[in-house]
Amino acid sequence: MGGEKEKSLDDEQRLWAMREHLGVRARPTDAAFESEVTAAAVRPVEPIIARYADRTGELIIDVIAQQVGVRFEEVRSDRDIERLEQKYLVEKRELGFGRLAQELADRTVDALLFQRLHATGDSQDRWVAVLNMTQTQSRAYWSRPHELIHRLAEPPQRRLPFYRHRSDARNRLERIIDIGAAELAFPRTAFGPRVQAVAGQHLTWELVQEVRAAFAPTSSLLSAGKAVLRFWPHPAFLLQARVRGRRGKPTVDVALRIDVEGFSASALLSGVQFFPNMRVPPSSPIAQTFATHRNITDLESLGRWSTTTGSCLPDRRVLTSALHMGSVIYGLVTLG
Asked: Where does residue 105 rank: exposed (0-12), middle (13-18), buried (19+ CB within 10 A)?
């Protein structure tokens, strides 16, 4: 309990330090704080994004990293840890790397960001971002802009330990960083026009794959889908479905149920609102994909989506594109 309270106080101090570093007017307690911090952090690199808007996201991120002195290092095995210890601990006398193995032993840590103590002002590795890829490589593309936003939004650490970064939607500081990371990974001025160019087509996972392959081929399909939805001009939802029971009663009424992972801006005005933990009807392509393990795209009626209390969604005809990913089904639902 004491550790959690200490971390909460540390995060609060970092929010105030972030405000001073970026010169934003909003206080951490203000509703506008997140948007002001994101805008201020991204603003210095917007010329780079504009200059390379017709190139890939990977190249944009690499150029930004070079501009701000961040070197990305990837760890896939113990041999990589040994290599980095030799490079930074032994050869460059950066004592923080003596903790590298200990820090990466925590499987929930996606990345570590460290400001080198012995780097010169013009070094290309004044900051070192170590990406933990021992469990999965699917977050590698996302982790890079995430670490860059930490570099851009926060003042120099002035302390020896690594900053340990993990995905945590409940942590406000990491949530702010993720908002900024989304802008670097799929920039409004570079990725947005690409989505607008295909907005006359049906929103399917196949279309998301095409846009992803052209802009950020190393990104995950799910992150690309969320990014496409962010710029999609028509009402659309991203649903995640998995087998479970009622909330608070996991063994009762076990069925394929959904959470809303995202939605387009125009979906807010559509009059359609999916209920949390809502059951997926057997007629939905989401249920059919779950049953067959085949990705299915088809029309369905939302009127067949109902709750145990008898409530149901508006009888709207929609196009649902369902994607099977392990034990989870992801559905893109577009209103006609």
From this structure: exposed
If one counts every other C-beta atom within 10 angstroms of the C-beta of residue 35, the result is 14
231 φ/ψ angles, rounded to the nearest 5 degrees: -110, 5
- Residues written for the chain: 336
Q: From CA 138, how far away is CA 269, in angstroms rounded?
A: 33
Residue type at 41 in one-letter notation? A
Kindly list the structural domains of the chain, giving each domain's residue range(s) and its CATH number in brackets, ordered by start.
2-185 (no CATH), 192-335 (3.30.450.130)
The answer to whether 246 and 253 are in contact (CB under 8 A) is yes
Residue 188 Rama label (left phi>0; alpha psi -120 to 50; beta): alpha
Name the nearest CA neighbour of 204 among 316, 279, 295, 280.
295
Closest CA to 225 of 246, 247, 244, 210: 210
Distance from CA of residue 245 to its chain's centroid?
27
* Average pLDDT by stretches of 10, the chain with 336 residues: 55 92 95 96 97 98 96 94 96 92 86 89 89 80 93 78 62 89 96 98 98 96 96 98 91 94 95 94 97 97 88 93 95 95
For tokens 């081929």, the residue is 217
Round to whole Å and give the CA distance between 308 and 118: 63
Q: List, as one string, the DSSP characters of 265-287.
A: GGGGGSS--PPTTPBPPTTSHHH
How many of the other CB atoms lie within 10 Å of CB of 249?
9
DSSP state of 132: E
SS3 144: helix
Among 213, 231, 202, 197, which residue's Cα sits nearest to residue 320? 202
Nearest C-alpha neighbor of 230 from the set 196, 275, 270: 196
- Cβ(104)–Cβ(134) below 8 Å: yes
Distances (CA, A) of 331 to 206, 241, 295, 321, 327: 12, 8, 10, 5, 13
pTM, rounded to two decimals: 0.89
Eight-state DSSP code of residue 126: S
Instruction: Name the DSSP class of 168.
Output: -
